[in-house]
Amino acid sequence: MKVTALRRYPVKSMLGEDVSSLTVDERGAEGDRRLALLDIETGRVATAKHPRRWRGLLSYSARRGPDGVTITLPDGRQVTADDPGIDELLSDLLGRKVHLAGERPAGAEVERPAPEDVLEHGVDAEVDYQLLEISQGAPGATFVDYAPLHLVTTGTVDAIGVETLRYRPNLVVSTPPDFAAYAETDWVGREIRIGEVRARGILPTPRCSVPTLEHGELGRAPQALRAPIAQNKVDVPGFGMLPCVGAYLEVLEPGTIRTGDPVRIG
């Protein structure tokens, strides 16, 4: 097995960027999910997990350069994250007052409807949601969903039949043709050597409705959720029975991960 793609997402719930290497430590990948929008009214983190309210974020993209983060708006305009008018601009475009934050507030929460409800009733429906504290498995003040790193395999995504980027992983690992789909579920508790980095699987990755939504020019893909609902519902410790794709990792030994690096499971 080897790393076939690396991605980071400078702003939570916006599209990210492919990179050839990622420097990682116990907080995760450098430049990954270091920024997020906070809803001024509720104080919660804006995420496309609540598609009726925030799926439009997936029409924005963010990249990180030497001078900071640049956001590309849906109309193609670009603005830097440190622009003094960024909050007003994004609030006007999104129709809701937001603040682009660089540090996660203590106990930060997101609104997460059950993905089955979104599939049944549609992305514009008023459905119940639960409040979920993010970054429970990660140190520091980043805006990761749970853990520092997120990994998926080509064997899993190929079996589902959708684009890998819908699952927003940091690492995509190519697997042999006979490798079982959803094998990452069994990597929880095992050490994973990725190039010079040593990590450990700590949780199967529960899926929300985000993979089914439009991602830039990609249309909707209900199959991205229906397949794991039918094929890989897992008892996720602390969260219950949930459809899972991929694995969350903690970093035991920091370093740099590069495309092409070998991946070994301990």
Q: What is the strand and helix layout of this fold?
A:
Layout: E1 2-8, E2 17-19, E3 21-25, E4 28-29, E5 36-39, H1 51-54, E6 61-65, E7 68-72, E8 78-80, H2 86-94, E9 98-101, E10 109-113, H3 115-121, E11 129-133, E12 149-153, H4 154-160, E13 171-174, E14 191-194, E15 197-206, H5 223-231, E16 233-236, E17 240-253, E18 255-258, E19 263-265
Parallel strand pairs: 12-13
Antiparallel strand pairs: 1-2, 1-13, 3-4, 3-18, 5-9, 6-7, 7-8, 10-11, 12-17, 14-15, 14-19, 15-17, 16-17
InterPro entries: MoCF_Sase_C, MOCOS_middle, Pyrv_Knase-like_insert_dom_sf
Organism: Pseudonocardia asaccharolytica DSM 44247 = NBRC 16224
Protein name: Molybdenum cofactor biosysynthesis protein
Name some characteristics of this structure:
3-stranded antiparallel β-sheet, 9-stranded mixed β-sheet, single chain, 266 residues, mainly beta, 14% helix, 19 strands
Descriptive overview:
By secondary structure, the chain is mainly beta. It has one domain (2-265). 14% of the residues lie in helices and 36% in strands. The chain has five helices and 19 strands. The protein has helices at 51-54, 86-94, 115-121, 154-160, 223-231; strands at residues 2-8, 17-19, 21-25, 28-29, 36-39, 61-65, 68-72, 78-80, 98-101, 109-113, 129-133, 149-153, 171-174, 191-194, 197-206, 233-236, 240-253, 255-258, 263-265. The strands form five sheets. Strands 1, 2, 12, 13, 14, 15, 16, 17 and 19 form a nine-stranded mixed β-sheet that branches. Strands 4-3-18 form a three-stranded antiparallel β-sheet, with no helix packed on it. The chain is globular. The protein starts with a strand and ends with a strand.
